[in-house]
Amino acid sequence: MENERSTAARRRAQAVASAMRVFADQGLTTSAVQQIADEIGVSQPYVFRLFGSKQALFLACLDELVERVCVVFRAAAAASPADPLLAMGEGFRDLVSDGVVSGLWLQACAAARRDEVVARRCRSALAEVLAQADTLTRAGSGELAGFLADGSLVMLLQALGMDLSGGTRAAVDSLRMERTSA
Q1: GO: which molecular function terms (predicted)?
Q2: Is there a domain that residue 24 lies in?
Q3: pTM
Q4: What is the mean pLDDT of residues 5-12?
Q5: pLDDT average, residue stretch 142-152
Q6: pLDDT for the residue numbered 30
């Protein structure tokens, strides 16, 4: 029985990792649980047995997203106690660089417009990430709002395929130049 639970827990983690990528690219309503099942080598009914529904799988992905962000924040703050907010921002940019976290978050926000369960989970996710940033930095509300805005901008620019290697300001300057040359 313990081996079966271990296998189910391992399959559940594999399904979440796969689903994060699939949902990031295809969204909740058009993504195929079959694609997730195929990636991890199980049947579609087994995925549903693990989670109960596609929405529950999506919510598990949001929980994993929050966990990943909080892990990055804790590591960055520990590595740079003199300026944890700056380090956390740099860590966050690295985290979203592959498009999975930003794509999943943007899909979640889109789904939240019509699904109150997803909206509640998104609000809870933001609250948890902000609480973690507050705990690690003791920044004020204004600083935290700016930090959240910068993170949102990073995800938006990343989703649009902007080069962020020079930072967000350089990417914004690039957009400004694109507008003036058009």
Answers
A1: DNA binding
A2: no
A3: 0.89
A4: 82
A5: 94
A6: 61
- Is residue 70's pLDDT more than 60? yes
Give residue 8's pLDDT band: very low, low, confident or very high (50, 70, 90): confident
Burial 114-130, CB ≥16 within 10 A → b, else e: ebeebeebbeebeeebb
The answer to whether residue 147 is domain-embedded is: yes
Q: How far apart are CA 179 and CA 173, in angstroms?
A: 10
Structural domain contains residue 61: yes
pLDDT at residue number 2? 53
Residue type, position 7, single letter: T
Residue linked to tokens 């081996």: 3
Which amino acid appears at position 81 of this protein? P
Instruction: State the first-to-last Cα distance of the chain, in angstroms, to the nearest integer.
Output: 64
**Residue carrying the six token digits 């520990």:** 78
CA distance 44 to 60: 17
Does residue 182 carry a pLDDT above 80? no
Asked whether the beta carbons of 44 and 37 are under 8 A apart, the reply is yes
pLDDT, tens digit, 9 for 90 and up, residues 103-126: 999 999 999 999 999 999 999 999
Number of domains in the chain: 1
- Helices 54-79 and 84-96, interaxial angle, to 10°? 140
C-beta of residue 154 within 8 angstroms of C-beta of residue 164: yes
The owner of tokens 């699939």 is 22
Contact 137, 88 (CB under 8 A): yes
